[in-house]
Design goal:
The protein folds into 2 domains: about 150 residues, 3-Layer(aba) Sandwich (Rossmann fold); about 80 residues, 2-Layer Sandwich (SIR2/SIRT2 'Small Domain'). Helix 8 links the parallel strand 2 and strand 3. The radius of gyration is 18 Å and the shape is elongated. Helix 1 packs across helix 11 and helix 7 packs parallel to helix 11. It has 11 helices and 9 strands. The strands form 2 sheets. The protein has a 6-stranded parallel β-sheet with strand order 3-2-1-7-8-9, with helices on both faces. A 3-stranded antiparallel β-sheet has the order 5-4-6. It has about 240 residues and is of the alpha/beta class. The two termini are about 20 Å apart. The chain binds 2'-O-acetyl adenosine-5-diphosphoribose. 2'-O-acetyl adenosine-5-diphosphoribose binds next to helix 2 and helix 11.
Length: about 240
């Protein structure tokens, strides 16, 4: 009899449409702290208090200090076997989309091409006043200025209370609506709108799979729950796909 992992693996083959949602847990084994749970970034820095427009308006230097710290931290990390396995799935599964809540850019560095970064990227900066925006991997000053108009730059990420970039949610919802298989990897399922994606996938008839170190509020919605490190489970799912 097939185990759960083999059954999930069998469902990733053929022409099936696969949508993967990832969260901070997929980068944990690279050394990027998660937001919640054991060793969570959440405990040391209250992300809810810093990642918001009113915090930036009141204390831009504090918010930039926090983002520059994250840029340095992530800049010293490498993609792990979970990122590599998802990049392999991208190459081997014809109908595939990776939606990530992560802003660390590690999926792209691992070689994933079809990636929707729904919360933006630590490596994007944009002007708070004019239209200047750029990708920037350099060490930034505490209060970086726009080279065009001289006003303050901001991180190119989506903060609490801000809408997603236009089109991102529409694309995610459309792709989830067509998915045959929906994998949720390394996310606590607590932050909207991503927290509702599993429910949406299920309503549209997808097989739902959770890969997480521990159960989450969405576990009850899952057809399969594989609990353990993403860096162990995803490579097992990806090996031999497309052969
Ligand atoms: P969380 O920190 O809330 O959840 C990470 C999940 O990953 C937890 O359920 C962990 O159990 C699990 N996990 C940890 N290590 C793992 C491993 N090695 N393998 C598998 N699972 C592991 O992170 P997110 O769900 O991504 O938003 O958080 C969602 C959003 O909240 C973030 O995008 C961010 C934050 O506020 C914004 O900043 C707007």
């Amino acid at each position: 009899m097939l185990g759960e992992l083999e059954m999930v693996k069998a469902m990733l083959g053929g022409e099936r449409r696969v949508v993967v949602l990832t969260g901070a847990g997929v980068s944990a084994e690279s050394g990027v702290p998660t937001f919640r749970g054991r060793d969570g970034l959440w405990r040391h820095h209250r992300v809810e208090d810093l990642a918001r427009p009113d915090a930036f308006a009141a204390h831009p230097e504090r918010v930039w200090e926090f983002y520059n710290w994250r840029r340095r931290l992530v800049g010293g990390c490498e993609p792990n076997p979970a990122h590599m396995a998802l990049a392999a799935m991208d190459r081997q599964i014809p109908n595939f989309l990776l939606i990530t809540q992560n802003v660390d850019g590690l999926h792209t560095r691992a070689g994933s091409l079809r990636v929707l970064e729904m919360h933006g990227s630590l490596w994007q900066v944009r002007c708070t006043v004019c239209t200047h925006a750029r990708e920037d991997f350099s060490e930034l000053p505490d209060m970086p200025e726009c080279p065009v108009c001289g006003h303050l730059l901001r991180p190119g990420v989506v903060w609490f209370g801000e809408p997603l970039t236009p089109g991102v949610l529409r694309l995610a919802v459309a792709e989830i609506g067509k998915a045959d298989v929906f994998l949720s990897v390394g996310t606590s399922g607590l932050v909207q709108p991503a927290a509702s994606f599993c429910q949406l996938a299920k309503e549209h008839g997808a097989v739902t799979v959770e890969i997480n170190r521990e159960p989450t509020p969405n576990t009850g919605l899952m057809d399969f729950a594989l609990h353990g490190p993403a860096g162990d489970i995803l490579p097992e799912l990806a090996v031999g796909l497309g052969e």
